[in-house]
Design a protein that fits this description.
With 283 residues, the chain is α+β, with helices and mostly antiparallel strands. The chain has helices at residues 7-16, 34-60, 67-81, 85-91, 97-115, 122-131, 146-157, 162-169, 173-176, 192-199, 230-245, 248-261; strands at residues 23-25, 32-33, 136-143, 181-185, 210-212, 215-224. The chain is flat.
């Protein structure tokens, strides 16, 4: 996933750079001027950041991404990562959730532009419908070790309430406060082992301890949805099939065409290659 490297900070530096010698840092060892800061940031991050900003500007003219669409993608990440969401943001270099949302928006814009070039056959749609599994709603209790999970399973079999044990024992603090509820989800959202176990359960059934990369889960499916007709699902299935066909090369080709149509002119000679997608936009 592409990263918006210090985009906001760089824009501020660009705005302050014009013939500026004001010091942004003073010390006994010497000062650092706004112009020095701008040149250093432009050299290191300029082309990459300008390319990303240009992509959003150009694509936003033709395509629209709603707040609801961004919220949905962020929710999927939170559902999948649980309590590890903030840690994952840091590991991937995002400053905060808002920084991540910026990247989600750009990815959705690129996806919509790529979708326009993809054809889907009736057979592909019918195969997708046959493989489709409706969303389910589940709760879980997550613990670090198998012994603790087995102890919780025994308490549940003895009549303890799932919600009470989730609040007391689960290490997934986000869902623990809600009695373990992780909400509705479909395939391809949760950890694969978690998903497989959850979809194997009947409504209100409780699983044995399930091991995933996050620890040991005890899962309860609390609600299920019925599979809608093919006609009602056709638009959703079309989007899913198209998404499965999107590649990075396709996105690069689409962006190259969009940049060409927009007649982009970059005045700073050091940033000329920012929209040259034949090579990485790294100075």
């Amino acid at each position: 996933m592409k990263k918006w490297v210090l985009a906001g900070f760089l824009i501020s530096a660009l705005g302050l750079s014009a013939c500026s010698s004001s010091a942004v840092m003073k010390s006994d060892a010497g000062n650092i001027t706004q112009d020095e800061l701008y040149q250093a940031m432009k050299s290191k991050y300029g082309a990459q950041t300008l390319q990303q900003l240009a992509a959003e500007k150009v694509l936003s003219k033709e395509y629209t991404v709603s707040k609801a669409e961004i919220d949905s993608e962020v929710k999927k990440a939170k559902d999948q990562l649980g309590a590890q969401f903030q840690t994952a943001l840091q590991q991937y270099g995002f400053q905060d959730e808002n920084d991540y949302r910026n990247t989600v928006k750009l990815n959705l814009l690129e996806q919509k532009a790529a979708f326009k070039t993809i054809k889907v056959t009736d057979k592909e749609l019918k195969d997708a419908y046959a493989a489709y599994k409706p969303e389910i709603r589940a709760s879980h209790i997550l613990v670090k070790d198998e012994k603790t999970a087995n102890d919780i399973e025994a308490k549940l079999k003895s009549g303890a309430k799932f919600e009470d044990l989730a609040k007391e024992k689960s290490t997934d603090t986000a869902s623990a406060t809600k009695g373990g509820d992780v909400g509705w989800f479909g395939t391809g959202v949760m950890d694969p082992d978690f998903e497989k176990a959850a979809y194997s359960l009947k409504q209100n059934q409780i699983s044995a301890p399930i091991k995933t990369q996050y620890g040991y889960h005890i899962i309860q499916v609390t609600d299920t949805k019925s599979k809608q007709s093919f006609a009602k699902m056709k638009n959703t299935l079309t989007a899913q099939v198209k998404q499965s066909k999107v590649t990075q090369d396709m996105i690069q080709k689409v962006l190259k065409n969009e940049f060409k149509k927009s007649n982009i002119d970059i005045s700073d000679k050091d940033l000329k290659k920012a929209t040259d997608l034949s090579q990485p936009a790294v100075s």
